[in-house]
Amino acid sequence: MLKKFSENDLYEAKEYTPGEEIYEEALDYLTFWDSVAKSEIEWFEPYREIIYSGNAPFYRWFLDGKVNITHNCLDRHIESKGDKTAIIWQGEPENEKEMITYRELYQRVCRFANALRTLGVQEEDVVTIYMGMVPELVVAMLACARIGAIHNVVFGGFSSKALSERINDSDAKAVVTMDGYYRRGEVIETKRIVDKALEACSVESVVVLERVGNDVNMVDGRDIWWHELEEGLADECECKALDSEHPLFILYTSGTTGKPKGVLHVHGGYNVGTHITAKWVFDLKDGDVFWCTADIGWITGHSYVVYGPLSNGVTVLMYEGAPDYPQPDRWWSIIEQYGVTIFYTAPTAIRHFMKLGEEWLEMHDLSSLRLLGTVGETIDPEAWRWYHKYVGSERCPVIDTWWQTETGMIIIAPLPGITELKPGSVTLPFPGMLVEIHDEKGNPADIGELVIMNPWPAMFRDLRGDPRRFVKQYWTSDGKRTYYTGDGARRDEDGYYWIIGRIDEVLKVSGHRLGSAEIEGALVSHEAVSEAAVVGKPHEIKGEVPVAFVVLKKSYEPSVELEKYLKTHVKNEIGSIAVPEKIYFVEQLPKTRSGKIVRRILLAIEKGEEIGDITTLEDVTVVERIVNVKGAK
Ligand code: WT7
Questions:
Q1: CA angle, 434 as apex, 428 and 439 as ends, to 5°?
Q2: Distance from the alpha carbon of residue 43 to the mean position of ligand 1, in angstroms
């Protein structure tokens, strides 16, 4: 029996949400996933076995099944929902909008799939997609999937340098991009960034969507306009029956080294996992207008803007621009205008709007909303309550969802109408998920590292080109096959989970994942820098911001200008989100005798906290000198 708390009235879930017995039933997780896969997903050919664990942690799911995620997102809806709106698109300029039915989306995907074929894109070829939030981004992803190509979406906020690294690492054959898109009233010149990236790598073709009509440079024999490529092509294209384990996409994410990891997901299991979590966690029903505000360049956008909702045949809203542009009520006016029923966003956005004030919400009728979600970082109870009160009018449950790029699907979250809520807690694991907390020795504990004890269908299958890192970084070597998440967590007396934050050197800046090592690498690549250490400093709105401690080479002097140059350098190397809020020039970094930088000390100095034990340092006087540098600012 689940406990009942007094604080939150139970939400009335729609008819097909399971009852609370599902938690018990799903403990037999293979039977559970088998029944989900069979009842929710259409297979061209049934699978022979649910799982193969013989080569763990390289698990395989739904063996020898034939499937294609685009069939489940498009083809199967055409007969019953052909005229239903699949995508509502709102451009940043208010007069630019589009309603795309399931039939139209199907046709556009087919046509673009044919277009990719004319470029010679084949099964397992990688296509890098670098675009803003426009429907064609979804079309391009689904078109790749339809013909068995692998998409690699790169977030539009990444720099040309970061883009070229990802194009190179993934061995992309083609790039799909656009002339530009709008952000805060300005045109982001996407194609220009691609041109710069392609100076450092090469691809066979670049497809360019015309969106804003700015001047772009087209390279003969390589670049082609989207609309010209599609001319005369059919709007039907066979949906390839692919193996369940056929790769669907690669998405790069940050880890503890300077090199981003290419997380690999596959058609079958990812379809099953994102479909059922979208359906149950957001209690989807036919008339819903589902708005997940994440950019498609991150996993949240892949799983809960594109694949999960479309597989469920609901209407998805996509918005091109900034949340508070031209006014702080932009999001709320969109919710009112389109009757959004389910709204899924990040704590950083909620804190931002809290700060801007309730009056921007009170101008709008938000009564269409019936469920609110949050993801990306821990939501503090205060922001939770504000979200619940002002956005949800105390009517809508706030569903806090914990998961990762690697997990592909939501792993811990309440089931609306079944699981009682506690502000600030991600509550309980999704049915079929066995989650624990381990102490440093790997023993079960109430506080420690969050671990997952069983495989799940939407789990990532590998890191592109680095299977060794896949095994080493995430899985225990003792044959226990436990997945280590890198997050600290605690479990309370009701068995509820509370996420504390990353325990490794990974930052969450406005919910975006960045590695300390990645930013340090960018700094060190500048000619003036000898060494760098980056820590995540708590920030009221963004959750965390990077702060850097830099040792300059002998011939360089600290200056305000140099700090500026270094910030611009990081922006060019990675993107604006990685730029340190502050750069301190220090003589030395605190290091252990074996030469490891002790970032914990730098963070304590930055926060003005007790520094703690420094006896392991090679030179303890370093600490005092850094404190003095900081004090001088
Ligand atoms: C990391 C994964 C897939 C979601 C988008 C981010 C943190 C995610 C929560 C939450 C507390 C959360 C964790 C996790 N995180 N959701 N509800 N409460 N922390 O995906 O970029 O792969 O980041 O985001 O630290 O490890 P990601």
A1: 90
A2: 31
